[in-house]
Each structure stands twice: as structure tokens, then as C-alpha cells.
Amino acid sequence: MIDLPAILAVKPIDVEEYEGEPGPAMGPRLFGGQAVAQALLAAGAEERDGRLPHSLHSYFLRAGSSAVPVQYKVTTLSEGRSFATRRVEGVQGETIIFSMIASFQSPEIGFAHASAAPFELNVDAALQNLCSWQERNAHAGDSPIIDRLQNRPIEIVPLDPGSLFGTSAREPKTGVWMRMRDPAGRDPLLQRALLAYASDMMFLRNAMLPHSIRPGSSKVQAASLDHAIWFHETPNFDDWHLFATESPWAGHARGLNRGHFYDQAGRMVATASQESLMRPQGETLDNLQGLTNG
Question: Tens of pLDDT along 51-64?
Fold first, then answer.
């Protein structure tokens, strides 16, 4: 089984500079969630006063290689009694492929409210539904996708399996249960990094749901363009979390996605958003151009 905490760990190589190892590969390109998680851990390694990250905003500037380590260069932009802000640049060779600004905050007491989860918080029902779906669709051509998911360090159980494995058009509003396959411990910075890694696993697919396509299809060129996360609580990603996502807009070869993480008690743990590239290609592009010209 893949040891995700070991892969995400960054080692110091110079003053305010860290190196992250590549993998596990999801293709020839570096997985965006890995860059986000490693950059967050690099920024957190510079924290000396017990602050924890409450938000991050990142851009994927160039496609990174999944076979080459990434150097993460950290710059502290501001540091006060409550907050600290750090910039992280991810570099492969001489090329900056990734940029992030993360904000850290000391624990404080304040007013509180949160939206309720939009789906039923019943992971057992979702597991049973997935098993039933797999039995009904054992020869539907999605076995390679299911097998790949079984080998990922994050366990994924969709509320609607058809939204993850199928190709029929549907509303871009979905939910998946996610957790670590192997316990990772309770370190609060690592737990945030694990959630950050997982948060990049569903967004590309979500924005494509109304258009009968999915990542990896020859019909579309897909990539993450940016990624933002707000951490509301410290997650325990060893346990199940519901990631409820929606795509309120797509156009101009881009798709907007947003989502909330909830623990099994219904507590909102984090919010994430992303804009993704979803550029139509080949016959799909020709068809869209025909509709536009018509």
C-alpha cells in the first residue's frame, strides 16, 4: 500500500527551501493535490509559534513531471502575534511550476456558524450502494477505473457511483466519502495536508458531469488551473469525511468547482474551490463550433 504521509513529507535542503519526492503517479504529470500538500507542509515547517494554516491560494503555472522531485522555496511575507503569511514556489529544474500563498493563525475563540451538509451523512449506506452498483455493472467497462481507485492511498466511496464511473450527463452536484486507507496519526498540519491532497481528486470530474465527458477522455484537455482551501477545523482524515461538491459555471474552456468537507458528525471541516481547464478537442470541439456558428 502507498505510504502517503511518507511521500508528502518534505526534507530541508537549504534555508527556507525543501524538497518533495514525486509520486504516486496518476500519469506523466505531477498530481496537483500533491504539490498543494507538499507546499503546505513546507510552509508549515517554517512555523515556530504553533500557528496552523487556515487558508491557502495556489496556481498551477506549468505542468510538472511526476518523475522529478520538486524544490519548494518558502518566503515569510508577514508574521504578527496572531497571523503569519508565507509564499511557496515549487520548482523543477529552473522552472517555477507552482505558486502558493498560505496564511497561518494562532488558535482563537470567535462567533461560529456553518451550513449543514447537503447530503445524508450515512457512509454505511453509501458503501452498500457502491457494492450493489459494482455487482450490476461488473462488465460495463469501468473496471480499470475502479481498480485504479482501489490502489489510491485515499479511499473513495461516491454517493452516486454513476457520477464517478458513468458517462451520462447529469447535474454537476455530487458527494463522495473519503478517508485514508492507512492511519496517518493526528498531527494537525499533516491532517490538513492530507485533506488538501484529497481535495484535488474530484473537481475535474465534477465540472464535466453535464457534458457526458470525464478526465482522461480524448474529447477534452483537462488540468487544474488554481486551487484554494479554507480550513475551518482540524480534520481527522483517518476517519470518513463527506466531500460535497458542485460546479456552478463552465465556459470559455474553463470550469468552476467548489465544495465542503464534513465529518460524520456533520461538522464542516474545510471549504475548497478550483477553476479547471476543460478544453474540448477533436469532434467534440467541431460540434461545439457548429452550435456556435449555427
Answer: 999 999 999 999 99
